[in-house]
Structure formats: C-alpha cells, structure tokens
Write a structure and sequence with these properties.
The chain is of the alpha/beta class and about 625 residues long. It folds into three domains: about 220 residues, Glycogen Phosphorylase B (Rossmann fold); about 170 residues, Rossmann fold; about 180 residues, HUPs (Rossmann fold). It is about 40% helix and about 15% strand. The chain contains 22 helices and 19 strands. Strands 3-4-2-1-5-6-7-8 form an eight-stranded mixed beta sheet, with helices on both faces. It has a six-stranded parallel beta sheet with strand order 11-10-9-12-13-14, sandwiched between helices. Strand 5, helix 4 and strand 6 form a beta-alpha-beta unit. The protein is globular and about 75 Å long. The termini are far apart.
C-alpha cells in the first residue's frame, strides 16, 4: 500500500504519533511519503530555526526528498507563507502536488491512501489534486483554540470531516466535534511504544550525566515547555516543596522567566526520544501540569502512557481526557486542582508500592501503539474492500482543469511579489505606523497602569508583557508613581496579571505596591475597569503603559471612558516585536509581514473604535 501523509509537524520535531505511526507502517512493508508541516498560520520570528532546518533538509536530500526510516521518505516542501490567501494556496497546492506525483512515479505507486493531520485549505487542495483512493483525517488538536489565525481553519475542517472516508480523533471532545459533521468518528488517542519502555525496564542503562547530580526525590515533566503548561502552578509548587527536585525535560517553547532562578527546578532541555526511558526510570513522580483551556480540554497527553510504561505515579491537573482515563483504568492518576493540592498529591505518591506500579504498567500496555495501529489498519482495509472506483464527472474535470490553469497563479504571484517588495524593501509600513506612536515623559502620577501583553496589537497572548513590566519597574524606581496596576487584556489564556505580579516581585517590587485588575477583556473594557479602580482610590493621574503602536487607541479610549482622570502615554522605549534584525533604523528598513499586519490591524481597530464612538 502506498501512503501519503500530510503531517502537522516536521519529521525532526519532537517524536510524536505522526512519526510513530508512519514508521511502523513503513516497517510493515508499506511505502510512505511523509510531507512535512505546511502550517495553519503564517510564519513568525520564533519559526526561523524550523525554516532553516527545512532548507537544510532540502539541501541534504534529493529535490527535497530524503529517506528517514525504512519504507518512509520525508518531503520538505517550500511554500508561500500565506495559508489563507487564495492565489498562494493554489500555487502551493500545484507545486507540492507536482512533487508528490513525481515521487509516486519514481516508486511505482498507484493512487495512494492519504492520511492527513492537517485540515487546512492547502491540505484539502493537495488531496483534490492527488485524488487518493482513500482519505483519512486524523484530528489530534483543536486547531481553532491553538491561535487566533488558526481559527480561520474552521470551515475547511468541517468540510474535511464530511469529505474524509475515515476520521480518527484523539479525544472525546474532538469526537463530539467531528460527529456534528459526520455519522461516526473513531477514537484513537496517541499511544506509547510500550515494547521499547518494557525492554528498558528489563535491561536498564547508566543514569544520564546531567541527571545524576540532581538529588532525589525527583518530580519530573516530559514534553514541550509551551504555553499550555501552567508555569505559575509549577513555580508555586516548587517553592512550597524545596526538599524535592523538579526536573523538566523538553524544548523551551515559551517564556520560562517564572521558573528560572528557583533552585530546585532543573531545565534539562530536549532529549532524543530513544533516551527518554533512561530519564523517566530515574524519577520518583511524574506530573502533567497543564492549564485548563479550550485547547487543552481536547488534549490527550501522550506522556501519560510513557510515564505509566515506566511504572511512575502521576499527578495531573483535571484535564477531561485524564479524568476519562481514570474512569476507564481505575483512578490511577492523582488529580489536583491548585498548588496546595498538587503538593499534597506529590507527597502521597512518593512512597511507591509494587501493586500500584504493576497496575500502571498494565494500563500503558493496553495503550500501546501495536494494538492501536493494528485497529487503525483493520478499519482502513475494511474501507478499501468496500470502495468502488468512481468515474469523474464532467463538472469535476472542468474544476480540475481550472485549478491547473496557470493564469490565476501568475496573477497571484505578481500580486504577492509587489506586496512583498513594498513591505520588506521600503519603510512604508513604518511611515504608516508613526501616527500611532504617542508618548510623554517627566510628570509624576498616582499609579502606573500596565495593559497586559494580550491587549497589544500583535494579537499574541503574552506578547511583550515582560518588556512592559520591566518599563513599569523602571518608572517605579525613578519615583514616577508609588504603585503599579496590571490589567489583563484577554481572558481566554492563563491569568497574565498573576504572571506579571510574580515577575515584578522577583525583580524587587514590594508586593504591597502591586494591584491586579482582572476584569479586562480588550482595550475598552480594560480602561473602563481601570477608571473605576482609579476613582475608588482617588487617583487623578496615571502613567499608561502598552505597546508603542497600540498607544494612540489606548489613550483615546481612556480619555473617552475616564475624562476625569489624566493618562500619560508611557510605552516601553523598545519593543522586541518591532525590533529590526540588522539594527538599521526604520527609515531605511522594511517590515516583516507580521509587523505590517499588526500596524494595519491597529489602524482598522482605531477606525472601528471611532465608528462605534469608543474614542
């Protein structure tokens, strides 16, 4: 069987179900093409490393193709970075599909079985070009909750739910979502390579060198240190239990300021998948400290079965899939809702018992990849046995001819080229943004008001909050105001005000000099709530801190909501979001697409506020 996999990660990324399933299929004699991630959002600055690796992989391979495992070829596609722009989607689909057809011809494959982890318009366009004999959509994430831009995938994903021959999902929440669009979706949570862990338990190796100096008892976390990890919970738990060492194993994918400097937290970084059993075998307790959000409610944490495969007791936050796991396997996971309970459950787990260890290992065995992949293959073979060749209608042939026409593609490329030149090679974006920058200096005020990172024009939760806190601390130390107020600009992510307060305290600001305003939900609501707080405390003037190009709208909204309280605009003097890589001034330097989008978006929001009468 020839298998085309449209992956949502690159092959060299953290080892997950994508690589595990395809490598197993390759070892069984199937021929697999693993097309690396084409994305659900536009690239950002933090993606530079991944883009560089993509270019290196293309260079190391042949035409972007390289053998990565027995029976598995990975393809590193190059694509225009506009995942929701029609001409770019058509161009990318045509180029990638052409490469896939070349590979199919080279390996002598017929129409493949397509297995996509991506529900994007580009993924669907590639499938339409390739015309596979069977399409499987493996829904492993709630993309709509992963980022603001990814919410645009909603219509495409709903269509893919309906179009796919089989839909696999990793959680019950995702199954419910899929079955709103189709009659049935199959529940297949990510599993564990149980045989590898079992072999290691029977023949352990030497303790890893960077783990050996850390005394026991050790509490460990395995996986990416990303935005869904509850860092305030980890920090408070570690401070409450100084006698216990917390070992975090995985790549740093978020700001870890809260964790650095805590003496019993050890950041060991990413490790090869083959070494994970060696690290897990030297832990005493494992944790899954995820925040509870719209995104994590759909998450089945793969690390749970990896922990159990080594017999480790586990303490976790109350994720729905963890609670379902407990119902199925008999309350093997200790559930904790806040730091105090987290500490209590960790202490309860430290004296390990052999009976509980055996139960955990058996639960992992039942959730191994071998039975999981076998069940998937059975469904695929059953579906293929019932499938009948379908003749293409004249309408479909006409649509295919239109898709392969070059004129729309060339027009789209011309437009993209002109836009690229205007944004990247001229300072036009900075000229456009200059009227948005407002700042004053000098006068004292009653308080420093900081709008949290989620309120900024970047649209990113937490974007730039550390810069704003640092600037507030500078103003406080300069005697510009006796106190500071942190206001959360969004409510759908972790509580930013708490993170900012802890950061300020760690840098020497007295806790009594900090207030939190947690009712904010965007500029208008934030300034209204802050005005009420200022009037209640008798303040007459504040220093207002937000990001530079967000300041004009924030100050205008403040004046409209609080005409009796003066607000001095005091943005940070520098912003990493608007920094220029080579240090050249804005007058001679172009902007990135993300920066251009942010400034245009801020102008549109300012116009909208004026239309609504909010400024």
């Amino acid at each position: 069987m020839t298998i085309l996999c449209l992956s949502s990660i690159d092959w060299d990324f953290i080892w997950q179900g994508h690589q595990e399933i395809m490598s197993r299929l390759g070892r069984q004699g199937h021929t697999v093409l693993f097309v690396e991630n084409t994305g659900v959002r536009s690239p950002r600055l933090r993606d530079c490393g991944r883009i560089w690796n993509r270019l290196l992989n293309r260079w190391r391979g042949v035409g972007g193709f390289r053998e990565v495992a027995p029976g598995v070829t990975a393809y590193a596609p190059l694509a225009l970075p506009f995942p929701y722009f029609g001409p770019a989607i058509r161009f990318n689909a045509r180029m990638i599909s052409r490469a896939i057809r070349r590979w199919l011809a080279a390996v002598g494959g017929d129409a493949p079985v397509a297995w996509t982890f991506l529900p994007t318009r580009l993924a669907r366009a590639i499938l339409q070009e390739i015309e596979p004999k069977l399409t499987i959509y493996y829904c492993i994430d709630n993309f709509l909750a992963s980022s603001a831009e990814a919410q645009k995938v909603k219509a495409s994903e709903e269509a893919l739910f309906r179009e796919a021959d089989l839909v696999f999902v990793t959680s019950r929440e995702l199954r419910d979502k899929a079955e709103k669009q189709r009659e049935r979706a199959e529940l297949f949570p990510f599993a564990v390579n149980f045989e590898t862990f079992e072999e290691f338990r029977q023949k352990p190796c030497a303790e890893p060198g960077d783990l050996a100096p850390i005394p026991r008892p050790r509490v460990g976390y395995l996986g990416g240190l990303h935005q869904w990890v509850d860092f305030p919970l980890l920090a408070e738990t570690a401070r409450t239990m100084p006698e216990i060492q917390f070992v975090l194993i995985g790549p740093e994918q978020a700001d870890l300021t809260l964790l650095r400097g805590i003496s019993n937290i050890h950041l060991l970084g990413a490790k090869p998948h083959s070494l994970l059993p060696a690290y897990l075998s030297r832990l005493d307790v494992a944790v899954i400290p995820y925040r509870i959000t719209d995104y994590t409610r759909n998450v089945y944490p793969t690390k749970l079965n990896e922990y159990f495969a080594m017999g480790l007791p586990v303490v976790a936050t109350p994720l729905p899939e963890i609670e379902a796991y407990n119902r199925e396997h008999g309350n093997l996971v200790e559930i904790a809702h806040q730091a105090e309970e987290f500490c209590e459950k960790i202490r309860r787990c430290l004296p390990q018992d052999d009976a509980g260890r055996g139960q955990r290992i058996q639960a992992a065995r039942a959730n191994g990849w071998s039975p999981r992949v076998e069940a998937m293959q059975q469904l695929i073979l059953e579906k293929l046995s019932r499938a009948t060749p379908r003749n293409r209608t004249w309408q479909e042939s006409a649509r295919r001819l239109a898709r392969t026409g070059g004129r729309p593609v060339l027009a789209g490329l011309l437009f993209i080229g002109l836009a690229w030149a205007g944004v990247r090679a001229t300072p036009v974006v900075w000229w456009l943004g200059e009227p948005l920058r407002v700042a004053t200096s000098g006068a004292r005020a009653d308080a420093i008001v900081v709008l949290a990172g989620g309120v900024g024009e970047s649209g990113e939760a937490g974007q730039g909050y550390e810069e704003r806190v640092a600037h507030a601390i500078e103003l406080y130390r300069a005697g510009r105001a006796p106190r500071m107020v942190f206001s959360s600009g969004i409510t759908r992510t972790f509580q930013e005000t708490e993170v900012m307060r802890l950061l300020a305290v760690s840098r020497g600001v007295p806790p009594e000099a900090i207030l939190e305003e947690k009712e904010g939900g965007g500029i208008r609501r934030s300034v209204s709530s802050l005005g009420d707080l200022a009037r209640m405390r008798g303040w007459k003037e504040v220093l207002l801190i937000t990001s530079p190009y967000n300041m004009k709208r924030a100050q205008a909204a403040w004046k409209r909501a609080n005409p009796d309280i003066a607000a001095q605009p005091s943005p940070p003097p520098q912003s990493s979001f608007y920094s220029l890589k080579n240090g050249k001034p804005a007058a001679v330097q172009g902007a990135s697409w993300t920066q251009a989008k942010a400034i245009i978006d801020e102008w549109l929001k300012l116009v909208y506020y004026k239309v609504r009468g909010w400024v």
